[in-house]
Design goal:
By secondary structure, this protein is α/β, with parallel strands linked by helices. It is built from seven helices and eleven strands. The strands form four sheets. A four-stranded parallel beta sheet has the order 1-2-3-8, with helices on both faces. The chain has a three-stranded mixed beta sheet with strand order 9-6-11. Strands 4-7 form a two-stranded parallel sheet. Helix 1 links the parallel strand 1 and strand 2. The longest helix is centred in the first third of the chain and has 21 residues, at 43-63.
Amino acid sequence: MPRLTVRTVNLLDSAPLPPPEGRPWDAAFHLAAHSVPGISWNRDLVLENLSMTARVFDHLAEHARGCRAIYVSSAFVYAPKQGAVAEDDPTGSSHPYALSKLLGEAWVLSKKEHLQVFLVRSFNQIGPGMSPGLLIPDILARIRSGESPLLMRGRNDIRDFLDWRDAIDAYIQTLTVDAPSGRIWNLCSGRATPVSELVLEVLKAMSVEAEVLFANPNQETLVGNPARLMKDTGWFPRRSLSDTARAILEAPH
């Protein structure tokens, strides 16, 4: 088994990044970013996301030319659409988080002659071990406190939820796929799921009955088409929404 070396670096620092030890790197994933769309976004956060991405891909282009470099972008980059979005659909979200990812994509693609670059536009990933402050941990805490009805502060949006364990399987597949530099993939389930359905699956897994209400009656749809990723890699999501809900509840908390 290959030796695993863990290094911690500050991508917002000005200090040089560490070069490879021995042979150049074969592959790299770039996931570091401010990545919660619901936080208070400002210009500094947008530029910090771009700065981190630029440092990583400039460093790879200099020290690991030809490396397979995979940039994790976001489904939020797409312009609003009622149906499932595919990779060739227009981008154009006005959200600052989406802007930070679009700027990162542009920087990454500028390196595609020096690196094998791939963009993965990730949709909503959920599963066991999620950090406090995200939707599911917040819901679990409120259910366990006995809150009923559950008043959701946001909207009953239609989203594309994917178990993060399925996502890891997909990332592994991208390490060996034969595709041209600059290829873009949607990482998603292709399932259109209202937030209310996700909450009900969690309640069902807990054997709890509670009414679910939403403060905002408006609804937005963001669902992906994973056909290109499935065709290129042979990957497909194996876990259902109920599988994921049960795994979340079985995880230590």
